[in-house]
Write a sequence for this structure.
C-alpha cells in the first residue's frame, strides 16, 4: 500500500521552513570535546520545520482573514454612488 504523498510546499513555506530549520539546528547543536553532536536527528528537525511552517501559514491566513473587511456581500450599485452627489 502506497503512502499518501504530501503536496509540494510553496516557495514562501519552503523559505520559512528553512529559517525555522536553521534556528532549530542552531539551538540543538552541542559541542562535546571538539566534536559536533546533534541531540535530535537533523532529518526529524527538517520534518518538524515544514510542519511548523505550514501551521504558521495556516494561522497567518486565518488572522489575515479575520482582520479583513467583515461586510462581504454588501453590493454598492452605481445608482447608490450617484445619490452621494446630490
Amino acid at each position: 500500500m502506497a503512502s499518501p504523498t504530501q503536496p509540494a510546499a510553496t516557495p514562501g513555506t519552503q523559505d520559512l521552513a528553512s529559517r525555522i530549520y536553521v534556528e532549530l539546528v542552531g539551538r540543538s547543536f552541542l559541542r562535546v570535546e571538539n566534536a559536533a553532536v546533534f541531540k535530535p536527528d537533523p532529518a526529524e528537525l527538517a520534518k518538524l520545520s515544514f510542519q511548523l511552517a505550514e501551521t504558521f501559514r495556516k494561522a497567518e491566513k486565518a488572522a489575515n482573514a479575520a482582520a479583513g473587511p467583515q461586510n462581504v456581500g454588501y453590493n454598492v450599485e452605481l445608482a447608490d454612488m450617484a445619490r452621494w452627489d446630490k
Summary: Helices lie at 11-28, 42-67, 78-84. The first strand starts at residue 29 and ends at 32.
